């Protein structure tokens, strides 16, 4: 998952090259956006290197360029990164380009002149998870704003900073492998969840812990399962919570647990 916030580098470049872009203060918003989309674009991706730092592959995409100074919406990309073997280095990057031939960067650069913003993060690739029949539960992915028409694996706005506006419904994605099939060929499992804050907050808002917990039941015909669950009507007020997540395989009587700290923030 790659997220970038290109608004600030865009504004810096746009202010310097406004005349060359033939944009005036009197131009309407539609004309300005059309000119911006003609020349600016964003590239995101990941480059893979072996232990000798020889490049072995690259994944890249061109996500929508969000430019909103008030909300500073992120531009995001989700990619399946293949396992390349022990010692693999991963370089995640985001690049902002201005392709207008008469514009120039702020200062001299060793990079191509059309490159106007660059973000990079290098990480070692994690060890591969071997195939196993044991129950395995993924990390929890949290966000909000479920997208009704989306083919994305995460059909909601992913929030890796784990900050959810107070008037939004949290959405949790989870993935489980190694579920046990019963004699009829079905899995049977439950998810117990609990959003917990300190007792003083419960008393202050006149809530009980039971309002923030529950059990969800599932049955499938496959030993693995994934879903994005939206939690509506939860009385979550501004503050910090810990989400306790327990998955119980009822056929094998085994369980896996995860914890996740989230922040409910003011929507103003």
What report would you give on this structure?
The chain contains 3 helices and 16 strands. The strands form 4 sheets. Strands 7, 8, 9, 11 and 14 form a 5-stranded antiparallel sheet that branches. Strands 10-16-15-12-13 form a 5-stranded mixed sheet, with no helix packed on it. It is mostly beta strands and 268 residues long. 10% of the residues lie in helices and 41% in strands. It starts with a strand and ends with a strand. The chain has helices spanning 7-16, 29-39, 199-204; strands at 2-4, 40-49, 55-61, 75-77, 89-98, 115-124, 136-137, 141-144, 157-158, 163-165, 170-177, 187-196, 213-220, 225-230, 239-249, 254-265. The chain is globular, with a radius of gyration of 23 Å.
Q: In percent, how much strand structure appears in the residues? A: 35-45%
Q: Give me the strand/helix succession.
A: EHHEEEEEEEEEEEHEEEE
Largest sheet: 5 strands, antiparallel
- Helical proportion, percent range: 10-25%
Structural class: mainly beta
- Based on Cα principal axes, name the global outline: globular
Our Rg estimate from Cα atoms comes to: 23 Å
- Oligomer, anyone? single chain
